[in-house]
């Protein structure tokens, strides 16, 4: 029997890798954790943490302009100081960083190797000239921005999520290639800070993975805020235009024809998808098969085609979310350290697009249920029926609940201010197959945005309860004398 240097090797110190290393080390496995750049990965340094900090700051600038409209004294609009904003982002990262630091993971019992790891054999990884081996290996190397092959783009220069949070000054104009969550979130943020923003995408609408009705609500908000979107557009080439970068587009119209259009901007942000960070792993030495964009295909147990090699987080390309990486890591820990079963259920994966308003999603959308031939109906509730939404000038939102023939909740989508925080009851409803009426059993405090769930159920139950037949039965049983709303309205109309 071969003797290995470690029980498990984890390549990559992002959200997924750190969770695997933490769990396995604390359960007594001799754990090697390899990270070539920053512990904490993209989420901490170039993704979730800096982007949400920037969104918060941009929201404060938007709120300041709104407050100005309610003020008696006219004051100059606040101007963003990008160096101060960058410092705020860095401070937040530094506050969180210790939790992901090498010293903390060493204190948990893991051996941390700061360097680039690559396979030399199916069970062996080389890092800094040292050869490590283990029965189980986990790839958790994350992903990076995919750069489209656009003529002249490299020569003109562009930004990605790795450098957009450290700009020395605010771009007067910003063109964004990609209308997914990253592109739309950052586009709205920079617009609120004062940039002139144009978002460009080949898709027919922004946020194409979200429910179409929900993305339309965000699209309307972007238009109100002055963000320009160009859809069904392909970037053909980029050329210098004085101090600007000029993007030549081919824009398709509804008839199948296309027209040429140009967009000029000080900066170009590329947010057109991701690709896996597996190109330096020498995966051929391990016999690993890679999919498109370098992702490692896995089964529901997170195993690759080489059974002792797992892939979690962005590196497997399934869902590029930190919380999914954490859930996948838990499956690997369960299988590797506890020798128990464990599989991922991606049916109940929630996600939030952190625009304003936010879009929160779990389970089936109306579109996905129809696509899979599931008999369903859709319950809609506007936030215009929620008093707190009016108080906060946030009544443009919408709740959609997808239910099956037995009124069990299949999915929920919310477009509203703070939609991500409102999603919690929906997670339970979808995961536990609650019936729609379960949303009405809890008493919610007034006034809160969470009343929207109860209002949705009440709107569905009202016709079943408040109807002529129910009134006839109750009059017969209890001798009630009221005639109901329709008769009362008719009598009032005739002056009776």
Polypeptide structure, described:
By secondary structure, this protein is of the alpha/beta class. It folds into three domains: 6-144 and 275-347, FAD/NAD(P)-binding domain (3-Layer(bba) Sandwich); 153-274, FAD/NAD(P)-binding domain (3-Layer(bba) Sandwich); 357-465, FAD/NAD-linked reductase, C-terminal dimerisation domain (Enolase-like, domain 1, 2-Layer Sandwich), CATH 3.30.390. It has 16 helices and 21 strands. Strands 1, 2, 3, 4, 5, 6 and 16 form a seven-stranded mixed β-sheet that branches. Strands 17-18-21-20-19 form a five-stranded antiparallel β-sheet, sandwiched between helices. A four-stranded parallel β-sheet has the order 10-9-8-14, with helices on one face. Helix 1 runs parallel beside helix 9 and helix 3 packs across helix 4. The longest helix is centred in the N-terminal third of the chain and has 21 residues, at 48-68. The mean pLDDT is 94.
Q: Topology of this structure?
A:
Blueprint: E1 6-11, H1 15-26, E2 31-35, H2 41-45, H3 48-68, H4 82-97, H5 102-107, E3 111-114, E4 117-121, E5 124-127, E6 130-139, E7 143-145, H6 153-156, E8 173-177, H7 181-193, E9 196-200, H8 212-224, E10 228-230, E11 233-241, E12 244-252, E13 258-265, E14 267-270, E15 274-276, E16 309-311, H9 322-336, E17 351-353, E18 358-363, H10 366-371, E19 377-382, H11 387-391, E20 398-403, E21 409-416, H12 419-422, H13 424-431, H14 451-465, H15 468-478, H16 485-493
Parallel strand pairs: 1-2, 1-6, 2-3, 6-16, 8-9, 8-14, 9-10
Antiparallel strand pairs: 4-5, 5-6, 7-15, 11-12, 12-13, 17-18, 18-21, 19-20, 20-21
Helix pairs in contact: 1-9, 3-4, 3-7
